[in-house]
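Supplementary Methods S3. Input chains for the assembly prediction are listed below.
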Amino acid sequence: MKPLIKLITAAALPALMLGCATAKYIDHDGRDSIVNVGQINTQDWIRAADELTQSLLLSGAINSVAGKPKVMMIGRIKNNTNQHIDTDSLMKKIRVALNKGGRALTTTAVGLDGPEDESSKAVRELRADDEFNQATIPGKGNLISPDYSLSGKIIQNNARAKRGLLPTIKQSEFAFQLSMTDLKTGLAVWEEEKLIVKQGSRAAVSW
Amino acid sequence: MRCLCYPVFVLLLTGCASYVSQTGAFRGAWNSGSIERAAQLATQEANQRSESRDAVVWFLEQGAALRAADQFAASNQAFEQAEKRIRFYDRQATVRLSKEATGLLTNLAALPYEGRGYDRVMLNTYQALNYLQLGQADAALVELRQAHAEQDAEVVRNARRIVAARKSAGEYERAIRRAKLDELQPDIALDYGAFVNPFTDFLHALCLWNLATDDRENALVSLRRIHSTLGGPEFLASEIRFVDRILGGAKHPDLAYVIFETGVAPIRREVRLDVPLRREKVRYVAASFPRLERRGRSAPAHVATGETRYDATLICDMDAVVGRDFRTGLPAVIFRTLAASATKAAVAKKAKEESGDLGAIAGFLYQAAGAQADLRTWTTLPKEFRVCRIETPGDRRLTLLVGPQKSEITVNTGRVNVVCVKSFAPGAPLKIQQFRLK
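Predicted structure tokens for the full assembly:
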């Protein structure tokens, strides 16, 4: 009997220990994702980007001519929230959707603070370098100037309310505002705002 | 015999010099501006105590001293050692019941120094400055992001400390709650809110708009936060307008940011108080508590170019940062100190009852050995951070003034340079370092 008990214990112990593990994979936009009231969570970026992209595509503001996608540059995305955020979380998703749909391509060679990717410039600086086969270096006049620029702002508004004996309710509202400007005319050809409002309460540890 | 053995063991455990006396020679060298000597002493102590409960605080002192001595890589190594130990203690946080038990049987100074909230933020801030000095911008940004995260994490850690302290108080909880110990409260002239270090935020903002590629807008978030925390000084309002224009594509002239680190942060002194608990087992206890003691006075700082003189704005009063951290942690310190004193008094009473005079002597020794407040604190932190932004003059020469002290410097080439000025005691020479940001 004893060897049997030992065997069962040996088999059951690792299983019990594995059962204690807490890390798991979840759907990034599913119900299991963590929701913080005062922060923009992954699912918020996804929702905002999806809805803004749909609005842009449906507006017809960037119709490709003869199957040739339009070229877009990323302008300034102002962060008017009270937290550090990476606005690329929003812009990248929109860029990817437009790129995949064949409606617009984003230039990385032009940006307000200089190019997003310095490589286009760096490769042209090889023109005077004899070590490189000059026929493989891009000639002058190949870079494409953008047709549109995409700029915007993310705004945060906070509010809190106390209802009777219940814990204080906190509310955060995040507004994602985007504009697309036709660089030839300077006119905003598309504008949209997406609101995400979150509410919650948290008990504080105190004396 | 048994009651004698225990106090002897406890004496061994607690019979160490307080941190104030441990650091006497080191602080003397530092305060007089003998940086090389201070770096040497700190390195010696840090090496000796690298496996002790004081390792973290000594690595922090060593990091600061080596930074002042221009040994930036070595300074970062010391800070990394401190960081590694702090992470080790953090990982252990949930399973250390033995720690609370040790605290109850001896004193809080017998527990490992795990790094206070502001230590962790300043550790990352100094590492960032060292990396900037070494020309490693990406590494500096990583450190500043960590400092930012540390400020948020400290709020959670403090909540945990309160819960742990309550548990350790056990049967004395209600009695301790009634104890009034107002005289331990630090006098805080400025309150920056929970664990906010405005200088770290300012440095982060400066690095974001100058060095970052994709999150430069966050510089304005940090600047707005400091602006509101500090009550809206004109320098920061102007900095926000200025950075906003630059992020919108405007050009700017060559700039020099001068950071003044002046004076020394407060230290902790011991104060012994009799606290009535009015419990059957223990009527009252005599316990030692830490109290903050400010050092020196605030010194105004200026930058002069030719005939023009610019005032440096106070960005961070470290007395306030340390005071706020002290005040937040004080309830937990009081709880644990009184709980420990009450436990020891109860043990001593029992020893006397069981073993008569011999037990009374043993009990007295036990209580005396354990009555030591935790006075450990990072002593090389400055009293104040002041900042001044000026357009770099044509000859690139700046005159730097801190109180009566004066020094001159030629700013390196570059569009944005940072000059760090460190002052020690009045009369000691200013320590000047500079690096190019852009």
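Residues 2-436 of chain B form one domain. The first strand of chain B starts at residue 255 and ends at 262.
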